[in-house]
Design a protein that fits this description.
The complex is a heterodimer of chains A (392) and B (328). Chain A is built from ten helices and 18 strands. Chain A has 392 residues and is of the alpha+beta class. In chain A, the strands form four sheets. Chain A has an eight-stranded mixed sheet, sandwiched between helices. In chain A, strands 4-5-18-17 form a four-stranded antiparallel sheet, covered by helices on one side. Chain A is globular. The N terminus of chain A is likely disordered. Chain B is of the alpha/beta class. Chain B has a single domain, classed as Spore Coat Polysaccharide Biosynthesis Protein SpsA, Chain A. In chain B, the strands form four sheets. In chain B, strands 1-11-6-9-5-2-3-4 form an eight-stranded mixed sheet, sandwiched between helices. In chain B, helix 3 links the parallel strand 2 and strand 3. The longest helix of chain B is centred in the C-terminal third of the chain and has 21 residues. Chain B is globular. The chains are: A alpha+beta (392), B alpha/beta (328). Chains A and B meet through helix 2 and strand 4 of A and helix 3 and helix 4 of B.
């Protein structure tokens, strides 16, 4: 009976939050538009962190700072300030500065490059002080709002890692915000090794270079990819090599002098990632002995696997909130900022804020109405984290 | 008395602003309240569903919710067949069909018609017009245009301009005006109203004007509305009634050369009519209203004609309905 009463209280509060937050609709949506139209390729995030810092200043946050890694942070001081909660969103996007970042707004939907990953996350971070204010919520703990840089590719979570290594505040628990997908429940991080394989002709292509030798770049790339797929076929399904992109050549008739494969090895087991990485290094060693071409492999980013566990109070609460909101939860391991937090044994989750589609395509889009479910989930999680006294 | 060059130089010094001069929104809102002004934002539309939602969201958030600078945002539509009005209304704009405003005066298709009817429908002491096709919308597209009117009571009419002249390889680009401005309007102004050449983008669709000025201007309903405003206000009040604000950059859809030809035809009609009105070209013959363009298919050339007649609406102050609604 007592449990039912508690559930009813949480349910009423969640649904009340969701409705009350609609008052901030235009401010939130405008933040999405503005964050969405600022180009922010990895390593060039200055304009977007400036945007966040301006928003934090307007909201009167304490200790607004830009650190050496380019991260921007602001603090909402808690009533007691004995604990520190973190809400983070990575500010970088996969898109180059030169791409069209125009955002289009339709009825109930916005579309444009990088909206789901991660302009919506940035916009919610920028609006969070107003959200808490609108709901009259004052936390006991200090709330650190953090826009992290250098998340993607060679960035290798450098922003989040730098913050965790250098922050004067010890973080008790954290939430990472991603635009999509509402319902995702990420409480574990995959082991991962991210790398590049490069095939190059040892002498430049010219009239004397035979077409066979020059075409060797493509042929060698094909063989390497074939061998990688063979490893996938042979290995257990929990360990995969993902081939993310292949680059070579620029036309129809000129054989390329260079080729590149970008890949990630992902596994729930750290030693399997290391074993597959070693196998790839040996594979590349066999190719590098061939005449006329140089083949190399470079690992540019690594993650250790981590897992908060499905029975952790943070995970159970998040699943319960989604159920009340009528959103189906989906367990989804992460390779983003969550990995750096779990590495340090900080109880953390990654939450999705709305539904969307075409992630990482020029037509990336997000639905607007479900954002209010995402916000209600976020606020309720913060209230829970503020009350909670749990460890990793 | 100083010559034209000196007057233009002085005006550029005192009446040309950059939007960054008005960064302090709290101060701007305070000054607006102190001056006792109300401000209406008007967006004239015809099938603008791809950009209208974003404009409304940004203006409402930044200039109504965060900083209460604008008192109303209105979309006045010429009869869109897409979802323009639905989208605008869903994000909180007041939406009107131009044909429903002053219905006893009928409806004429054209942007100038929407701008004219806005004077009757909207309540503000200042009306800020912003086109609906801006892709890189920002609050400054309205705030930096109304700011000179709030801070400087003698200024009546503020125009936007974009893309400042840039020094490139020791050459200075003459101005950031569009093609019709540089090929048609600037040469005409240079000949007949040289001081108006100081306006870098006389045709820009973004401008803010005091009601007491707007209500006394006749309104061509088509392409000539901006040019006529400039000439009429210049004739009555001189260059010092104007100001302009640099908004840096405006991204919008590009118009075809054919469309620019029609636009030029309409502007020229209004311009020549103004010359007649002010006795500057009394011997002009009656103007043809048929614009002729040609298209070729192989060696066959086909004439494409379109009748463009720059009909004008009278000054709003002459309408009893307006005087009653606004207590004039």
């Amino acid at each position: 009976m007592a449990r039912k009463t508690v559930n009813r209280g949480v349910r009423e509060s969640l649904l009340a939050h969701r409705e009350a937050l609609r008052h901030l609709r235009e401010i939130l949506f405008a933040n999405v538009v503005m964050a969405g139209e600022i180009p922010a390729p990895t390593g060039y995030e200055r304009r977007i962190t400036r945007f966040l810092s301006d928003r934090f200043t307007e909201c009167g946050l304490d200790n607004i700072s830009l650190d050496q890694a380019g991260n921007v942070a602001g603090v909402i001081s808690g009533k007691t300030g004995r604990r520190n909660l973190l809400v983070a969103a990575h500010v970088d996007k996969i898109w180059a500065e030169s791409e069209d970042h125009t955002v289009s707004v339709g009825v109930g939907v916005m579309s444009g490059r990088g909206l789901a990953d991660n302009s919506l996350g940035v916009a919610v971070l920028a609006t969070l002080p107003l959200i808490l204010d609108e709901l009259g919520i004052e936390l006991d703990a200090n709330l650190v709002l953090l826009g992290t840089t250098r998340s993607f590719g060679r960035g290798d979570l450098r922003g989040m890692r730098f913050f965790l290594e250098n922050s004067a505040r010890e973080i008790d628990s954290a939430l990472c915000l991603e635009g999509i997908d509402l319902g995702r429940l990420s409480f574990s991080s995959l082991g991962m090794a991210r790398g590049e394989i490069v095939v190059e002709l040892t002498c430049p292509h010219n009239e004397e270079t035979s077409n066979e030798a020059a075409s060797g770049v493509i042929a060698t790339l094909s063989e390497i990819i074939g061998a990688m797929l063979e490893i996938n076929r042979r290995d257990c399904p929990d360990t995969r090599i993902l081939i993310g992109s292949i680059e070579s050549g620029s036309g129809y008739s000129v054989p390329p002098g260079r080729g590149l494969v970008r890949f990630e090895i992902r596994s729930l087991e750290a030693d399997r990632v290391a074993a597959v990485e070693e196998e790839l290094v040996q594979l590349i060693g066999r190719f590098s002995g061939r005449e006329g071409a140089k083949v190399g492999i470079e690992i540019i980013a690594r993650r250790s696997p981590g897992n908060l566990g499905i029975d952790h109070p943070l995970v159970r609460e998040a699943a319960g909130i989604l159920k009340i909101l009528g959103v189906e939860s989906r367990i989804e391991p992460s390779v983003s900022e969550l990995a750096a937090l779990l590495d340090r044994r900080i109880p953390s989750l990654t939450l999705g804020l709305t539904k969307g589609e075409n992630r990482h395509s020029p037509e990336e889009s997000i639905l607007l109405d479900p954002i209010f479910d995402g916000l209600a989930q976020l606020v309720s999680m913060l209230e829970f984290m503020d009350r909670g006294d749990f460890s990793y | 008395m100083p010559g034209t060059d000196e007057r233009i130089a002085r005006w550029l010094e005192t009446n040309t602003f950059h939007h960054s001069e008005f960064w302090d929104m709290q101060e701007l809102v305070r000054a607006k309240h102190e001056a006792g002004l109300t401000i209406s934002l008007c967006i004239p539309t015809l099938n603008e569903e791809t950009t209208i939602g974003k404009e409304i969201i940004v203006f409402k958030s930044e200039l109504m919710d965060r900083y209460p600078l604008i008192d109303e945002i209105a979309v006045i539509d010429s009869g869109s067949t897409d979802r323009t009005l639905e989208i605008a209304a869903s994000y909180g704009a007041d939406t009107y069909l131009s044909a429903d405003i002053l219905p006893e005066h009928g409806f004429k298709p054209g942007k100038g018609e929407n701008l004219w009817k806005a004077i009757h429908q909207l309540r503000g002491d200042i009306i800020c017009y912003v086109d609906a096709d801006i892709k890189n919308i920002h609050a400054k597209f309205a705030s930096a245009l109304v700011a000179p009117l709030i801070y400087r009571p003698e200024i009546q009419y503020v125009k936007a301009f974009y893309d400042r002249p840039l020094a490139v390889s020791d050459e200075v680009r003459p101005s950031g005006g569009g093609r019709v401005t540089e090929i048609l309007v600037r040469p005409l102004f240079s000949m007949f109203f040289p001081e108006l050449t100081a306006l870098i983008q006389p045709l820009s669709g973004e401008y803010a004007v005091r009601r007491e000025v707007l209500e006394r201007l006749p309104f061509p309903i088509g392409y000539g509305v901006e040019t006529s405003h400039l000439i009429d206000l210049y004739q009555s009040s001189g260059l010092d009634a104007f100001a302009q604000t640099d908004l840096d950059k405006r991204v919008h859809r590009n118009q075809s050369t054919t469309d620019l030809g029609k636009m030029s035809f309409g502007i020229l009609q209004s311009f020549l009519n103004r010359l007649k009105t002010y006795g500057m070209a009394s011997d002009l013959p009656e103007l043809h209203g048929l614009f002729r363009q040609f298209q070729a298919e192989g060696r066959r050339y086909e004439q494409v004609t379109r009748e463009i007649f720059e009909e004008e609406r009278p000054p709003m102050i002459t309408l009893p309905e307006y005087r009653e609604r606004h207590g004039r």
